[in-house]
């Protein structure tokens, strides 16, 4: 037992972890109040913000200053304005708006994680491989909420990989088609097919029409675990997809893709891939626990795992490549 005369200082790092929920909840409330949208027109003084939000000035003062402390707002005296990230990503109506993605976490994540102790003890890999993914996680509304973030990642993918060597992209489990939309926007000669479950495919058709790419991006319905895949593609994209299936199902899928791809074709595994020590990047590490909380069939894997799976399926020149942190990609080619 440590003597009372030689106690260590309080563990600031542990306290920061213990108050992580308060930090996230402050962000969620900022978005729910649409405060960045309010401040997009011009900075406002505290009293005006309090009045517009229907909040007591003292409560408004503490909330606004908490947002400043977290880097969400900036303050000049008693006047507040959006910080750069809030201005770029949290103003409703902007093409880079990610507020819906943030609110998905507010609505679903914290309820799941509240019972992580029990879920850790009961989860088994592959146990839910035949089950339909939860609507709140993989349904059409969830996919719409993630659409703008997927557009940004797709834009990065279109710049990081040379799609000019291909004619037709298969976006497997492509959600709203955001990745295919961004890639095709950057590569005018490329066509794409987005393949997902019927309800999600409906959402994808709407997003493709809004992007005015219906002449180049087709949408097909089906379950990649049980149904035939579309044909005619020479590059396949699996973005944030593999944790919804067991290792056995994923390996079988990669073998099917290898058989269908022409010589010179490629497969791209894109997402929150772990490093070999499985301790970074931090967000993918935490999303392994998110997968477990959703009772998904698998968790995020390391780049080495995915490299091995692709090589076992027959792919060559397999390499782990950077994308946009915390996302990366593993690319394999068919000789």
Q: What is the gist of this entry?
A:
By secondary structure, this protein is of the alpha/beta class.
Describe this structure in words.
With 335 residues, the protein is α/β, with parallel strands linked by helices. It has two domains: 4-96, Orthogonal Bundle (Arc Repressor Mutant, subunit A); 101-333, 3-Layer(aba) Sandwich (Rossmann fold). It has helices spanning 12-18, 20-32, 35-40, 46-53, 57-69, 84-89, 99-113, 116-122, 135-138, 140-145, 147-160, 178-186, 198-210, 247-260, 282-293, 303-313; strands spanning 44-45, 73-76, 79-82, 168-172, 191-196, 217-221, 235-239, 266-271, 316-322, 328-333. The strands form two sheets. The chain has a seven-stranded mixed beta sheet with strand order 6-5-4-7-8-10-9, sandwiched between helices.
Topology of helices and strands:
Layout: H1 12-18, H2 20-32, H3 35-40, E1 44-45, H4 46-53, H5 57-69, E2 73-76, E3 79-82, H6 84-89, H7 99-113, H8 116-122, H9 135-138, H10 140-145, H11 147-160, E4 168-172, H12 178-186, E5 191-196, H13 198-210, E6 217-221, E7 235-239, H14 247-260, E8 266-271, H15 282-293, H16 303-313, E9 316-322, E10 328-333
Parallel strand pairs: 4-5, 4-7, 5-6, 7-8
Antiparallel strand pairs: 1-3, 2-3, 8-10, 9-10
Helix pairs in contact: 2-7, 4-5, 11-12, 14-16
Q: At the first level of CATH, what is the class of the largest domain?
A: Alpha Beta
Largest sheet: 7 strands, mixed
Uncertain residue ranges? none
Shape type: globular
What would you give as the CATH superfamily of the largest domain?
A: Vaccinia Virus protein VP39
The number of strands is: 10
